[in-house]
Amino acid sequence: MGRKTICYRGSLKSCNYRCSYCPFSKHRASAQELEKDRRSFERFCESIADRAEKFDIGAVFVVPYGEASIHRWYWEGLGRLAGLDSLERVGLQTNLSFLVEECLAVFDLYSGDTDRENGRESGRGICGEARRKLCIWATFHPEMTDLDTFVDKCHRLAGNGVNLCVGAVGAPQNISLLGRLRERLSSDLYLWINKMDGLGRAYTEEEKRAFLELDPFFGLECGSPAADAAMCSDRCFVEADGRIRTCNISRIKEGNWYQSEAAEIFHSLCGKKRCSCYLAYGGRVDFEGRQFFGAYPIFRVPKRYKAVFLDLDGTLVPEKHRGGLSDSVRRKLLALREKCPVFLATSMPAEEVRRRLGDDLDLFQGAVFASGAYVWMRTMEEAGKADGREEKPKCIEDREVIHSVDLKELPRLTELAAQCNAVVRIYRKREREVDMAKETAYKITLVKRHNGAWKEQECQKAAKILSTGDDRIFVEDHCLQIIAAHVNKGTGVREICDWLGIRPEEAVAVGNGREDKAMRQVCEGK
Known about the structure:
- This protein folds into three domains: 4-299, TIM Barrel (Alpha-Beta Barrel); 307-403 and 489-523, Rossmann fold; 410-484.
- It has helices at 31-51, 72-82, 100-111, 115-118, 129-133, 147-159, 175-184, 205-214, 218-222, 262-265, 278-281, 290-293, 327-336, 350-357, 410-419, 456-465, 489-500, 517-523; strands spanning 4-9, 57-62, 89-94, 134-139, 163-169, 191-194, 235-239, 244-245, 307-310, 342-345, 366-369, 374-380, 385-386, 389-390, 395-402, 422-430, 439-448, 471-476, 479-484, 507-510.
- By secondary structure, the chain is α/β, with parallel strands linked by helices.
């Protein structure tokens, strides 16, 4: 379990927007109601100052029913919280209707952040340590604001050193508009799509594909994971009066934020069958986007990495798809590699990848082939200029390592393949050294004819043939794969990170299969 995340929802139930579907747009708060909300939030901020270090709280996220950002006391409180050394992140959900520079000035004032006045440069504008902790979850409301105004505010926030994510409700009629929003935002801003409640029907496959093009995690919105309180012991949801929950949709717990101790506050209690919204499943310790978003995925702000490793099937192309990359994926890879080196990590051998991707393999600086049996990287020189024109980076040399498999049992494997109605394929790579010029086999694959399935007893026979333990067997679809026992995608990621001179924890690995688990764990420091 990591450091604790606290979500806070005050008594505010009013909004300055008048969206047709939202009940909070219908209520206008009285002066008394606003004063009550202000006092409640100030009390909460004081309690965090007292408890943050004691309870090992790392992040505080304000998730109001209404619109909080238009009220000064929220910026004052966020500033105070960001000024606490023990907190790493503070954040706010908002429709982005606030005045950017004025509100950030209040935040700076109450955080004691003087770095802006001293002119410290952050790389994305002038900001200080407190602003680097600030995370804004910005929701686009097409009924209430236009694209130009919203995008301009996003760029101004990012330019002022604020962490930001941007998103919208997945209304099918807005797919084209949200596509334009994606095009207008900088490539390093994550665009999320929340499923539309009250749609009255399931999304069509075409609609799902369109939203997945915008948000790779949209599939989780459509298939809410089964609830599991054991995955939620490092977070708490606090109401204005101190009532506590595990998350925004779980049952109210006994006890109170202001009177209870940590054991009672962070005791997991659910009561739901499924985690039906991002605030529920995004805060779980087993959330698959945790590595992409870092230690506090609840904010939906991507962590900045020094290298990215991407699986092919199920990640860059749909499962069972045997073609190459789509134009959309190509554009995303081109944008991504402007930020850091991008690598492919696949269980497929190099020959098959080259056949499927062709020139698209040039989008990657290297690859982990065959689940780590063959690892390759280009060493690139810095881009220069010629005749006033930008030149593309050039490859200085290739680096590679080959982990071979022993072919001494090949006759028995060939005999087994014939019995199982399969064929044997051997994947080789010529070693580069002149004095060791020989073909090295790094992978053996037994391929079932007609896409037949491998039976357990057939896999056991193969394991018996390879009983020395020098090789590893795993099955993918109709292929029984054999590689060196000591390698996997995780070892391949380590080798490339070593070549780059970075720690694996400074990289991110994305994949959805069993073979991807090892590389994800390596990048998570496990």
